[in-house]
């Protein structure tokens, strides 16, 4: 995995060849150094029911991101390096502390720029509970292969079927094709969800799609791509929690989704026969779902 970084960084599809190894702050699109910043490590109760359960998901929120989503709901931490800086041993300590609290899984949120450190940590210490990779979906297949055997559950976003929208809102060229190929690789590694007797997901892929305002065709297209290309029993989590944060420059993003948009997309999902998974209630669109951060 270090090979992705030693010369020039090619971890994610931006493939910007940035020198990150010997720098405190990186070059490249993400601008991140090699060692991760952890902005929060705590029990999280607002993931899907088969991820959060009764005891909560042990979320580790990494700073920075390989996307620049205009509608990011965690923009306070996703645009920069912040939080507590750790190496692989520091990450193991955090994982062990969370594991000891009785949570259902270790949930790595926005981990992509830090995979080399994460791989090193999980090779030294694999927790007894599932490890979740909670990602934007903008991933290179070659990079994901290095995670095989270390990740139990993939929780990728599938944000766009419309490439122009991916560029406009997230600066993510070719997102639809790249995300689909990445999710196929995730399915190859861990398959569709396997649940334990407690109803908690132990292994597999669950694809998330956030409905955006004024983007019905984009959502229909994402659901079509899932139905046409992924196993028919794939789990889909349709999310309705979008709310404007005040950072939006495009006028259509300055409102929540409407009940009509929500009903049309959730109805289309059922029409396609995508019956496994979850549809978030529309009342979920609230800033109260954003955790508070440990910013250093
Ligand atoms: S992880 Fe950062 S530096 Fe590396 S390719 Fe992606 S955006 Fe560029």
Describe this structure in words.
- The protein has 296 residues and is an alpha/beta fold.
- It has a single domain, classed as Alpha-Beta Barrel (TIM Barrel), CATH 3.20.20.
- It contains 10 helices and 10 strands.
- It is globular and about 50 Å long.
- The mean pLDDT is 91.
- Iron/sulfur cluster binds at residues 9-12, 14-16, 18, 20, 26, 28-30, 32, 66, 113.
Short account of what is shown:
With 296 residues, the protein is an alpha/beta fold.
**Pairing-aware structural class of the strands and helices?**
alpha/beta
What is the helix content? 25-40%
Helix-strand string: HEHEHEHEHEHEHHEEHEHE
CATH superfamily: Aldolase class I
CATH architecture title: Alpha-Beta Barrel
The beta-strand count equals 10
What's the structural domain tally? Answer: 1
CATH class: Alpha Beta
Characterize the biggest β-sheet: 10 strands, mixed
Overall spatial form: globular
Rg over CA atoms, rounded to whole Å, is 18 Å
Are any ligands bound, and if so which?
iron/sulfur cluster
Q: How much of the sequence is in beta strands?
A: 15-25%
* Count of helix runs: 10
In the predicted model, the low-confidence regions spanning at least 5 consecutive residues are none
What oligomeric state do the depicted chains represent? single chain
Distance between the termini: 28 Å
């Amino acid at each position: 995995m270090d090979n992705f970084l030693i010369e020039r960084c090619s971890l994610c599809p931006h493939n910007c060849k940035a020198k990150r190894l010997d720098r405190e702050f990186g070059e490249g699109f993400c601008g991140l150094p090699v060692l991760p910043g952890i902005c929060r490590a705590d029990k999280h109760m607002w993931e899907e029911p088969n991820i959060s359960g009764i005891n909560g998901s042990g979320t580790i929120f990494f700073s920075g991101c390989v996307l620049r989503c205009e509608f990011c709901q965690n923009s306070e931490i996703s645009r920069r390096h912040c939080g507590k800086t750790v190496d692989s041993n520091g990450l193991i300590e955090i994982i062990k502390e969370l594991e000891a609290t009785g949570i259902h899984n270790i949930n790595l949120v926005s981990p992509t720029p830090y995979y080399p450190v994460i791989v090193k940590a999980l090779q030294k210490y694999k927790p007894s509970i599932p490890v979740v990779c909670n990602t934007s979906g903008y991933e290179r297949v070659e990079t994901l292969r290095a995670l095989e055997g270390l990740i139990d559950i993939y929780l990728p976003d599938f944000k766009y079927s419309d490439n122009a929208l991916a560029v406009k809102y997230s600066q993510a060229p070719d997102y639809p094709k790249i995300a689909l190929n990445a999710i196929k690789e995730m399915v190859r590694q861990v398959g569709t969800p396997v649940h334990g007797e407690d109803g908690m997901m132990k292994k597999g892929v669950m694809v998330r799609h956030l409905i955006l305002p004024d983007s019905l065709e984009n959502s229909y297209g994402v659901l079509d791509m899932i139905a046409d290309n992924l196993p028919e029993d794939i789990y889909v989590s349709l999310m309705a929690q979008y709310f404007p944060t005040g950072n939006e420059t495009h006028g259509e993003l300055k409102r929540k989704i409407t009940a009509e948009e929500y009903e049309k997309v959730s109805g289309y999902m059922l029409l396609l026969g995508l019956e496994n998974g979850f549809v978030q209630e529309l009342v979920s669109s609230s800033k109260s779902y954003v955790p508070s951060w440990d910013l250093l």
